[in-house]
Amino acid sequence: NGDNDLVGRDGKLVGSPKDKAAVDKFIEQWRTKPEENLFGNDPIGGTGPGTGDTAQVKADKKRFAQLDLNEDNLLDGKEILKKHAGYDLNKDGSIDLMEFLKGRDGDRKARQQQRDGALEAEFKARDVTGNGTLTGTEIPADFKAANPNATRVTLKEYKAFRQKQEAAARADDKAAFKREDLNQDAVLDGKELFWPGLGTTNWASFDANKDGEVSEQEALRGRAEQRAAARRAEMAAYLKRIEERRGAAAPAPADPAPAAQVEVDQPAGQA
Fold this sequence. Notes:
The protein is mainly α.
């Protein structure tokens, strides 16, 4: 009869006329606005009652509009950046808004998985005893400084600390970028490229595409890589100290073997 009835397993109508009206309204919205997600628990946001787009989804929609040069609500031809090519889920040569939002969300999840994997590897490298927790000198100095009473650190605690630390550093970098962008044109160029707060480094070193200016994205990526490099260097120094201690603790043989029979241990990575 054309009505959108809610029917239970027993075949009887479920809910009041008011409930039915709400369902009719929902279906009409879905029919007339298929590009918008109306389910609030969807990872790409929503427009249903009490939901609304997340800040990230709003940013993705804005980016889609920037790329859609002919404003036909599709990305095709030269509008499709190389890094977005995989977003074309139905392989029709174009990317609609829904595909773009899902692609961006997938990229973020992939990056998060990569970061989680890196932190897990970092944790395992620090856990020289292999007991699943960091104790004593296994606990990094910056963690100890922030948590003076910490004696045992789990993987979950370590990841939470690093993620919070990175989020705070990123927020500081965004604020610094905004301060240095004197003409508020969303890029740093000319005299804006020098930032005394970076010491001997300056914003110009983050100009990845060498166009003479640094976007916020380039700046944040560059600063994140600086922090990652510092952590890698700290980790290398930590592991070196561990190896040195292991070497110092190794007992000397009481009765050395004849020279011709001594076996020489090669450094890691050598045959």
